[in-house]
Amino acid sequence: MKKLILFTLIAFAFFGCNVNLKENQKEISAVDTIQIFPRGELITDENFKGKAWLKTLVTDKETFDLTVSNVEFESSARNNWHSHPGGQILIGIKGNGYYQEKGKPIQLIKVGDVIEILPNVVHWHGASPEGTFEHLAISAQQSKGTTVWLEPVTDEEYNSLY
Fold first, then answer.
1. How far apart are CA 57 and CA 145, in angstroms?
2. Residues 26, 99 within the same domain
3. CB neighbours of 31 closer than 8 A, spacing ≥ 6?
4. Predicted structure pTM score
5. Distance of CA 116 to CAs 85, 87, 100, 113, Å?
6. Same domain, residue pair 76 and 148
7. Which residues, in sequence order, are CB contacts of 25 under 8 Å at separation 6+?
8. Residue 71: exposed, middle, or buried by beta-carbon count in 10 A (0-12, 13-18, 19+)?
9. Range of the domain at 9
10. Same domain, yes or no, for 129 and 59?
11. Higher pLDDT among residues 28 and 70, named by residue
12. What are the pLDDT digits (tens) for 109-137?
């Protein structure tokens, strides 16, 4: 009798957890499809590979000494190596992305991740091959200067995670 009760409790706990996981997956999937900010304009310069869209959200550099932008990358899209004289903060808001500092391995960026990039650190960021990626990009201390763009990220560098 004790074994039957124990088996029943374990089965209930397992199936109860499984239902909760399925409900949470539905919530996460719904969040992935929500467009929080407008897509913005397609970026057409030589500093990006693949399609990416930019929507600048905060532009008052004089008052705040920063800019805030929403950037959406299609699958495998990325920007060139670059640095920011005042540093940058990235906040993942949709999908999975990549971030890499020169000389270090690629880091996966997920929804809710915050990447703090110190001033003048050479890096790149973009979408993983699995799907689109969206992040907020906060460029700090704009009075120190604008983005310093460098060479493109090679396919070998981009694919070095695996």
1. 19
2. no
3. 94, 111
4. 0.79
5. 13, 8, 12, 10
6. yes
7. none
8. buried
9. 1-34
10. yes
11. 70
12. 999 999 999 999 999 999 999 999 999 99
- Strand pairing category for 88-95 and 82-83: unpaired
**155 and 85 housed in the same domain:** yes
CA dihedral for 66, 53, 111, 99, sign (positive or negative): negative
Same-domain check for residues 66 and 117? yes
Q: With contact defined as beta carbons under 8 Å apart, do 91 and 140 qualify?
A: no
On whether both 137 and 152 belong to a single domain, the answer is yes
Reply yes or no on whether the pLDDT at 13 is more than 80. Answer: no
**Which amino acid is residue 4, in one-letter code?**
L
Alpha helix locations (H) across 69-145? none
Q: Which tokens go with 41?
A: 């304009």
CATH for 111: 2.60.120.10
Kindly state whether residues 46 and 29 are assigned to the same domain: no
Query: What b/e string do you get for 124-140 counting C-beta neighbours within 10 Å, with b at 16 or more?
Result: bbbbbeeebbbbbbbbb
